[in-house]
Amino acid sequence: MKKLIFLTFPLLFSFTTCGHRAPPKPPYSKVPQTPKVKGLVQDYTAPLLWWEKTKTFSDGRKLSEPNKVSYLILINFGKRKVKTKENYFKDLPIGLREKRCYQVVSIYSGRKSKPSEPRCIVGKEPIERVPQIEKAVAGDGFVKLLLKPYEGYQVEVFKNQKPPFTTPFTVLNGTSLFVDKDVKNGKEYTYYLRFSSGSLKGKVSPPIKLTPADRVPPLPPENPLLICCKTCLLVWEPSPSKDVVGYLIVSGKERFSVKGIYYTFSKRPKGVFIYAVDKAGNLSKPVKVEAKGEKGCSGNGK
Q: Ramachandran region of residue 179, left (φ > 0), alpha (ψ -120 to 50) or beta?
């Protein structure tokens, strides 16, 4: 019996300690992730390169302070180097048929990533032309641009964007009409346009600033009637316009705003006009009100 206890004790000990063994931790990387280059174009006369901001180490862990990452641009495999805090780089103008190659290195806490794969570009004749606008309209919930006819290029449209212009809001392929309905009335929007042919980008147009708004007045109310006895009751039929939110009554120097389709005067008014008011504050044409008295009432306006 004693031998049995002696033999089982090591087995119990081995099972209890086995459950507490922690897996070995992998060696964490202290090197930042290599930047992912998103694009390289000739922006008018100069190469423009941009990439995703580095936010992780090379092993995928998040950086604790990603705003402290800087970047080293290697031009022609290190013949020239430029350091920046931005995630884009616009180089010096490039000559016709000149070839330049770019690589980007992330720097974090003094440690450098591996260089990105080389991206190269060959200089081309720049696009000097700029898209021309024939008409710009800011309407009720939309913006419309009508371009002069063009050919040979696409037109890139940038909306509320600042340089560098990398990703257009939309691209026009031969059409001269641009309509933007993703807008709000009363808010100003800024548009830039440029011609594009593959990686060759032209000059950017001057800014086009537009503020959409409802400028169309509603239809006036119909069949207004002023009935006077001891007091005067003004009634009317609603405006046919769907965006009407109220009515404005004007009598001499007095002005009354109402939501419904009637209004009571404590005494007989002189010269009454009524307007429909839409949600944008536009007024309809005024409608002059005619007074009528009820039988048996004095001062009925006749």
A: beta
The CB-based long-range contact list for 7-13 (8 Å cut-off, 24+ gap) reads: none
pTM of this structure: 0.75
Query: Using one digit for the tens of pLDDT, what is the confidence trace for 111-166?
Result: 999 999 999 999 999 999 999 999 999 999 999 999 999 999 999 999 999 999 99
Query: Is-contact 107 60, C-beta < 8 A?
Result: no
Sign of the C-alpha dihedral, residues 82, 84, 87, 93?
Answer: negative
Nearest to 50 by CA among 66, 36, 33, 32: 36
**Residue 200 belongs to what H/E stretch?**
strand 200-201
- Return the structure tokens found at 202: 């032209």
Using alpha carbons, select from 257, 200, 260 the residue that is nearest to residue 236.
260
Distance CA 198, CA 94 (A): 17
d(CA 174, CA 3): 95
